[in-house]
Amino acid sequence: MYGKPNPSDKASDAPTPSVVGGVIAEFDSDVALVAAARSVKEAGYRTFDCFSPYPIHGIDPAMGVRPTILPWLVLGAGFVGCVVAMALQWYANAFAYPLIVSGKPFFSVPANIPVAFELIVLFAAFTAFLGALALNDLPRFFCQFWSAKKVDFGRSTTDGFFLTVDADNGGFQVDQARQTLLESGAATVDVYFRPPPPPAIPSTLVWGGVIVALLALVPPLLTAKMQFRNKAHPYVHWVLDMDFQPKYEPQAYSPYFIDGQTSRPRPEGVVYRTRERSQGGYAATEMFAGYAPDPNAAPLGGGGILRDEQGLPITEETVAARHYLEGLILAKNDAGLPKRDDAGRLEWIPASSYPIAITDEAMARGQQRFEIYCSACHGLSGDGKGPITLRALELKAPLWSMRAVNDTYVSDQAAGQIFATITHGVVRGGMQIMPGYASQIAPEDRWKIILYLRALQRSQNATLDDVPPERRSVLK
Amino acid sequence: MASVAICPDDPAYDDVTRRPPLVLGGQTLRSITDKVCSIAETPHTPLGWYIGFGVASTFTGILGACILYLFVTGVGVWGNNHPVYWGWPIVNFVFWVGIGHAGTLISAILFLLRQQWRTSINRFAEAMTIFAVVCAGLFPGIHIGRVWVVYWLAPVPNYLAMWPNFRSPLLWDVFAISTYASVSLLFWYLGMVPDLATLRDRAKSPLRKIVYGGAALGWTGSAREWHRYERAYLLLAALATPLVLSVHSVVSFDFAVSQLPGWHTTVFPPYFVAGAIFSGFAMVLTLLVPARAIFKLENLVTIRHLDNMNKILLATSLMVGFAYVTEVFISWYSAAPYEQAAFINRYFGNYWWATWLMVTCNVIIPQTMWFRWARTTPWFMLIVAVCVNIGMWFERFVIIVTSVTRDFLPSSWQNFYPTVIDYLMLAGSFGLFFTLFLLFVRLLPIIAMAEVKAVAAHQAAHGTHDTDAGAADGRPNPTIDQPHVRQAEPI
Amino acid sequence: MAEHADKSIPFPIRLKPGPLIPAALVCGGAAALVLAAVLAAATQGGMKYFLHSYLLNFCFFLSISLGAIFFVAVTYACAAGWCATVRRIAEIMATGSAAMAVLSLPIIIAVFAGDILYPWRGPGLFEAPAGDTILAAKLPYLNAPFFVARLAVYFAVWIGVSFYYYRQSVAQDETGNPDYTRRMQRISPIALILFAFTTAFAAFDLLMSLDPHWFSTMFGVYYFSGAVVGFLAAHCLALVLLRRRDDVAEAVSLEHLHELSKLMFAFVVFWGYIAFSQYMLIWYGNIPEETIWYQARQEGGWLGVSVLLLAAHLIVPFLGLMSRNVKRNAALVAAWCVWLLAAHWLDMYYLVMPTLKGAGPAPGVLDLLCLLGIGGVYLGGVALLAGENSLVAIHDPRTAESLAFHTH
To answer: Measured between alpha carbons, how far is B362 from C56 in angstroms, rounded to an integer?
Structure first.
């Protein structure tokens, strides 16, 4: 590399390189440089260049510098940026993982424009910068003009003006070029030399570099492969992020218990909490929890102890509890006794009666609860035209259909069946098409809703006679 | 003759028949180079620099400690709490990003408008942009909670098979700020390459030669290089101009896309951009006025430069004031009770003091810039600039906090209380900014020498347009000599 | 190289239209308007359509004068030298605001007559429409007398500012005293402040209140951005046409056209930015009170107009005006100016006409007559005001700089 000739270096006096690169001239001012450039161009030289500490106005036409293609590159890059941005946003939010964000379309053009604009600018700007560097052949780590001793080329970036004529020009003669430059007004003219060719990179180094580069690709590719496995846990935990939690998991060993199990059996006397304490709440839980109820309780059936599948006696409390909590009662045969099938199993069927007091307050409560929980989908009159259903149908959401509850399909069902529907929802074809409301509506309220529902159903086929006289005037 | 029309008291200061000289004191190309390079080249760093650097890096250290504390403990160390979940971090972010915009305005927009006076200040301003964007980008980066999964913000495939939400303005911010940082960096660096080459060629020590030489990429100043450089500079300026508009508009979208009264208002994008330029110019002045005095740059950054900057300051102050008036008027005009309540709360509610501080600092105090004396007196403009910085910080604070502390649901109403970490991080961010800035001042060319030289040469060549009311002797104004070349001495 | 000292304009460049042409334009325009009114009165709902069409054309030509005021004030504020030779045309166009003041009479009459134009007009002068609580709350602002008073103030400001600049500039033609320029520069920031507030509020009054329940803080800026585009297009077109005269062609070069085209390009992008911001924020917030304005412009056949506006006002001119070669070709510049004027008219159409509920976009004879009518009176007024004055400022201190100007 040619740097500034070191004054103390005696060896620089020896003329080691012998290939002449061209002629370099120094000028007094930018005006002189422009004039000289014009005359050099007119003299027929093609490969020549001018150097100045700032861009000189008017030097491009004087030198015959053609406009650069950089603007076209930048324009093209801008288009590419726009396409990339739109494609990225479409792919990410509309195709690969469609994301519903406040009801906006998956591919929302207004929302996609800011990012598209930014990427247009980003791509264009990088192209402008890198393009300018590339077209200028930068970075460059050698400069042959330093080899001219009579001119201080370093001044080209401070206050010097230089013109170089390269030996590559057809018919180049050092003396002729020197003469042309002096006639154009050069203050000083000198010759510069080509740098010696750089030594070739040893092949071992090249192959070594290739091998290292290939090896370096292995870890990221391996990681990428691991990250896309179908297994639940990736091999490599780059970020721990709650992956290994200091908690005890079921089936794991626990040092705190003699039996070593983390999962503990239920202790004696544990009672589940339910919301309802009345009407056999405790008895029902005891039964379902698998505890033996009071063996001295009066059995049903008028003789003999009525037992269920588990061998536990079924008492009035249990039947009442099951009626209240599940809407099921024991099927009775013609004699009024609980029916048993061939295998001796009891049959529980949906109840038609209500385990609650049927009062005006109950009806009013049922109406209130219906309007809170049910009318959103099923409509205020139970005709199925609730706002959620209507909107879902508008959006063509899958698995939605309008379900009226005031029609015969529902009114033909026993109250207990409706109770089961409210509690567990509706599953059809393996999909839950109506959620269960057990966690939101207490059993007492569920019965009251059914009470009100019956009133709604009756209202669909009512005649004027069904309306009490004092209320008929409202209809007008 | 050279001092004609530079002194504001001189009646010829207002002379509309001639273009004022922008480079004063009979500068030659060499003197310009020496003046600017001497700051970076001097082997004896001034004591003041060490003191400033010491203070600034102390604050940077405080910032670093706070960030560490934040990562280890969590976002609860801040005052962010119900209902102001987005507190000082976002205020600081918008504040710093806004400041950055002035640099791009000076570099890019004034370049496109052919305002030659920008050449003395654009390097300074672009550097300020970079450092402001660094400070700005810090806050969103650290406020996300689980910083170790920040890469989820990038649209790269991950094992969750999830992608970022492109409908969120917060993600637009990620793209906008990254683009802005990159493009500003490119613009700054491209502009600096010729000046780095100057430093390379003047460098004495091998270390400096290697470092400046590497950074200068082998630039020689050939006419062809200059041609492509100028095209690239023009293209970058043309790209940076809409970019700067878009970046702060995207930042404003963070708020304006919501439905909150006081946030959801359509004028936010240009209002924020005007405010950003406003605060940025104030910060440039805050940095430039002392630097000019300390480094004796009065001939390159003349009083007229400061005068022009203060005029822009005044103009943007009026734009911000116009936006305030429009917002208040439309909130009344809307007859929407929530809109009206939001603005009554803003001006007369719990944070009335912040709002009126904002109005005073942003609209009232800059009105002093109508007066020539104010525009051309450095110590006074420094005070005004600092006030504007304070006012603009409070503007973001007012917008964010007043709207959120009194939103639709009265049960959510609660005041906002910043914590010590909030204060320390704000101060620390200034420390980071000044640390980077002092490093820039010490190591890099702080004025765009090549551009100033071009202006000086143009000034020498074209005179100052003495026409009908021209100079008595008809000579062009010799405010710059043609460079004299010594005969090359034998080495 | 004090080359600039040599360049100057020796003689004033006078258009000398004579008394006939302006009078013909004004009378022809007025006749077209009268014809339109008669046609409108003959049809059902025609008067309402006519008034809306009148308003849209009124706002179109007004925006050209407003853009001119902005251009003149801003170039003086920046002490710009390149535009010295083209600024006189802009000053003349700015004074066209006086013609617009006269043309505002039908609007004033309509406002006093009833709610035929503005729905916020209630049964009485100080009454809001029945049952509308929102408009009742807006009554202190949206009432006919205050509306007209404000309009008077706006015109007073615009006429005052534009005539001040015109008179000072014309006076400077005589003596070349730089004090005129100094005064015009000093007054320009104040002119800009007045301009900003009056334009924004005029947009609120004339255009935004057509849908009185709707509001947008950006609306003033939106109208402003369109106005600058419209003005620059009209200005460039006028310059290209005037350059057929040799004396104008010597004063106004391709460099000036290039520079003005660059500004046109920039403001086309600016308009797009403002329009997009307003749209996107309202779309994103999805608040029915705000989206209803855009919904009216997306249903009933208006979606096509919206898309056409986006394409014609932003996308196509953006791509077309990008090239340096286009900007330096006078014929192409003139073509783009006509395009942008049409696009700006479409913008006004898009702002005003959808308030006629129920009707889709159906531009017809009435629109054409209103365009020609208002345009005729406007151009006649401008020509009258141009009078015997020079079309190019000959003794502006910066004339030499402007004549020697070349852009990047």
So the answer is: 37
Nearest chain B residue to C211, by CA: B334
* DSSP assignment letter at A10: G
**Cα separation of C278 and C222, whole Å?**
8
Per DSSP, C313 falls in state: I
The token pair that represents A382 in the structure block: 């139970």
User: Which string of b and e fits C141-172 if b means at least 16 CB within 10 Å?
Assistant: bbbbeebbebbeebbebbbebbbebbebbbeb
Each residue of C78-97: pLDDT tens digit? 988 899 999 999 999 999 99
Q: Which of B167, B175, B197 sits opposite A111 (nearest CB)?
A: B167
Q: Return the pLDDT at C405.
A: 86
Question: Cα(C74)–Cα(A24) distance, rounded to whole angstroms?
Answer: 49
Amino acid (1-letter code) at residue C82: W
Q: With an 8 Å Cβ cutoff, are C5 and B461 in contact?
A: no
Cis? peptide before B164, omega within 30° of 0 = no
- Which residue's entry shows tokens 């003689």? C11
Report the domain count for chain B: 1
CATH number at residue B389: 1.20.1630.10
Residue A171 and residue A54 in contact, taking contact as beta carbons nearer than 8 Å: no
Q: What confidence tens digit (pLDDT) does each residue in B79-132 have?
A: 998 899 889 999 999 999 999 998 888 889 889 888 888 888 999 899 999 999
Q: Give CA angle at C25 (C22, C31), nearest 5°.
A: 140
Determine the Cα–Cα distance for residues A97 and B160; give it in Å rounded to an integer.
Answer: 10
C contact residues 270-309, partner A, Cβ 8 Å cutoff? 276, 279-280, 283-284, 286
Considering only CB atoms, which chain A residues are within 8 Å of C322?
Answer: 75
Taken as a whole, chain B contains a residue count of: 491
* Burial environment of residue A183 by CB neighbours within 10 A (0 to 12, 13 to 18, 19 or more): exposed
Residue B211 in tokens: 């470092």
* Residue A103 token pair: 């009801």
Residue B481 lies in a domain: no
Question: For all residues of chain A together, what is the average pLDDT?
Answer: 82
**Which chain C residue's Cα is nearest to A57?**
C408
Cβ neighbours of residue B64 closer than 8 Å, sequence gap 6 or more: B428
Give the whole-angstrom CA distance, residue C235 versus residue C228. 10
Of B199, B158, B173, B197, which Cα lies nearest the Cα of B36? B199
Per-residue model confidence (pLDDT) at position A424 = 86
By three-state DSSP, how is residue B208 classified? Answer: helix
B381, B285 contact by CB (below 8 A): yes
How many other C-beta atoms can be found within 10 angstroms of the C-beta atom of residue B389?
Answer: 21
Residues B190 and B229: beta-carbon distance below 8 Å: yes
**SS3 call for B120:** helix
Q: Does residue B480 form part of some domain?
A: no
Residue keyed to tokens 């249990």? A318
Q: pTM of the entire structure?
A: 0.81
SS3 string, A156-222, reads HHCCCEEEEEECCCCCCCHHHHHHHHHHCCCCEEEEEECCCCCCCCCHHHHHHHHHHHHHHHHHHHH
CB pairs below 8 Å between B and C: how many? 128
Domains of chain A: 16-198 (no CATH), 295-344 (no CATH), 360-462 (1.10.760.10)
DSSP C321: T
Grouping H, G, I as helix, E, B as strand and the rest as coil, residue A426 is strand
pLDDT of residue B362: 97
Q: For residue C251, give every residue at least 6 positions away whose Cβ sits within 8 Å of its Cβ, in sequence order, or none.
A: C9, C13, C85, C392, C403
Sheet (strand A48-51) strand order: A48-51, A161-166, A20-27, A188-193
Domain assignment of residue B115, given as a range: 16-462
C-alpha distance from residue C382 to each of B243, B442, C148 (Å): 39, 60, 24
